[in-house]
């Protein structure tokens, strides 16, 4: 993780031609939190990894999100992770190539 004061772990990578997609778990240590709040972050490169776009927080919730996995079919990017905000759920999000808008494909009991 390039975020100062945070601990990145569980990286996962997918690639298609010059496009590289990376997702990981990052512990955000906020004021008053002992263990932090695990979130799922994402970045992409469209030039073979020379540069990367801004980091996006995909989970962005008050609960713990962990164990991301990422894949691409050449048209879209998919990221799934374990979401422990309320119950043990698997959350799946999708983003079309060349776009930055993410769509939720649902949450499922794990």
Topology of this structure?
Blueprint lengths: L6 E10 L2 E10 L8 E9 L10 E2 L7 E8 L3 E8 L5 E8 L5 E8 L1
Question: Which characteristics define this entry?
Answer:
single chain, 110 residues, mainly beta, globular
Model description:
The protein is mainly β and 110 residues long. It contains no helices and eight strands. The strands form two sheets. It has a four-stranded antiparallel sheet with strand order 1-2-3-4, with no helix packed on it. It starts with 6 loop residues before the first strand and ends with a strand. The mean pLDDT is 79.
Strand order of the largest sheet: 1-2-3-4
For the termini, the CA-CA separation is: 27 Å
Structural class: mainly beta
Rg result? 14 Å
Shape: globular
- Average pLDDT, to the nearest integer? 79
Largest sheet: 4 strands, antiparallel
Instruction: Report helical residue fraction.
Output: under 10%
Order of helices and strands: EEEEEEEE
Instruction: Give the low-confidence spans.
Output: none
Estimate what percentage of residues fall within beta strands: over 45%
How many strand segments? 8
Q: What is the number of helices? A: 0
State the oligomer: single chain
């Amino acid at each position: 993780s390039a975020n100062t004061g945070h601990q990145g772990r569980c990286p996962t990578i997918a690639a298609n031609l010059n496009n590289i997609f990376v997702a990981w778990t990052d512990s955000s240590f906020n004021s008053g939190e002992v263990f932090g709040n695990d979130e799922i972050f994402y970045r992409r490169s469209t030039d073979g990894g020379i540069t990367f776009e801004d980091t996006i927080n995909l989970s962005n919730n008050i609960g713990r999100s962990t164990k991301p996995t990422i894949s691409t079919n050449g048209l879209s990017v998919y990221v799934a992770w374990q979401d422990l905000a309320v119950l043990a759920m698997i959350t799946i999000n999708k983003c079309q190539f060349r776009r930055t808008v993410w769509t939720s494909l649902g949450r499922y009991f794990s």
